[in-house]
Batch of 2 targets.
Target 1
Amino acid sequence: MTTLAATTGFTNAPLWFTTRSTAVIAFVLLTVTTALGVAATQRAMASRMWPRFATQDLHRNVSMLALGFIVAHVSTTLLDSYVQVSWWSLVVPGTSSYRRVWVSLGTLAFDIVLVVIATSLLRHRMPARTWRRIHWLSYAMWPLALLHFLETGTDAAHGRWGLWLGITALLAVFAAGAVRLLVPNEPHRLRSVMRSSR
């Protein structure tokens, strides 16, 4: 009996460790892309501190990389038999039997990521105002992901380093917000930068 349990635990261990590691990496990448998104405003773009690649290309590439790790995290969670999470729980909040509230926050964050990235890929085919309003959802996505990470993940709930990672991520996003507020807005200089990049 003990041998069977040990064998089962060993067999499921790769999925469990993959789920944990992809969750941590995805959360870090979401924090980076959120911080870049917060800072990549007209004020930040007008500053010499933020070149164009850091405010647009890097933001987009990190977002796509984060999506890849989120998909890997979700897939390994479904495949792992330790936690019973259904396919519906991926897109429909409140349908998970495991830590329903906290998993639902992760589901909402995942839904928002999908909507924001999908509309960003179709940005040139839709009105700028509509895209901008949808993109504002990303400001709600990151706090949901943070709470999901802190309350659902074993690394944050049972390990100090996970908690400190959450606190560091929170400080990073706040620092990006401070950059957005403190860097002066220079619309004339911004227009010249945009013209020269065409």
Note: The chain has ten helices and no strands.
Target 2
Amino acid sequence: MSDPPGARLWNPRDAFAEVLRAPDERIDLARSALLIAAEEYPALDIARYLARLDELAREVAPRLLPARTAAERVAVLNRFLFAERGFAGNREHYEDPRNSFLNEVLDRCAGIPITLSLVYMEVARRAGVEVDGVGFPGHFLVKHGTEDLIVVDAFFGTVLTREECQVRLAAVLGAAAQLRPELHLRKASAREILVRLLGNLKVLYVRSADFGRALACCERILLVAPDAPHELRDRGLVYEKLECFGAAAADLERFLELAPDDESAAAVRERLATLRPRLRQLH
């Protein structure tokens, strides 16, 4: 695997920040996801994996030409990606961080809902089919069509009915939750998708006490969504774990300025109360 041109000077974090300068509708999601992966894989050949998506699209595009309806187009895409190419959810090792890196998903044809959805979206777009991501509660999905809307679960390789979406929603939000397509099935923005992808990684790293990598996720989320209160809070808590007490206090104080009535605010005030004596000891 070859290094990117000028690899000694090339910094994936800087490149990621540069991508984010574009308006949301012009953000290259595949490239952005690969830039996220490049911090874990410094020699990552991004062009190679973008070419892999192009290749998949070239293979499926001729099969889509006879399709006239959303259902027919989805059937072609599903058969190609899931049955023929074998993309599937990694059920046995769901929390393997590799499931969140697009290069690994393309190499192993296994991932989690959001990365498999990303493959689906990018292959479809390159083949001339508009497919949107859906930040459904608990499980990322994709959709195609308008009046004849089709919802696809790329993790399980299935089409979901409205009734199945309702059952899933109730399982996550409670029995009283009612499916509202304009809310629960709305198109996710590029920035929302990147935040969710990085958020998944952040949770995995926090659970495994890998706070250095968790901090890297927090920092990139805040590049996507500066001053997002909960992300500032989370970065502050990670800083505390890394014994960077000044940075931790600054983030937690900023969180309280932005979200003083948040349900976690009381707990954050308690954390700050324990941090301040440590800060005084450093002076």
Note: The first strand starts at residue 88 and ends at 89.
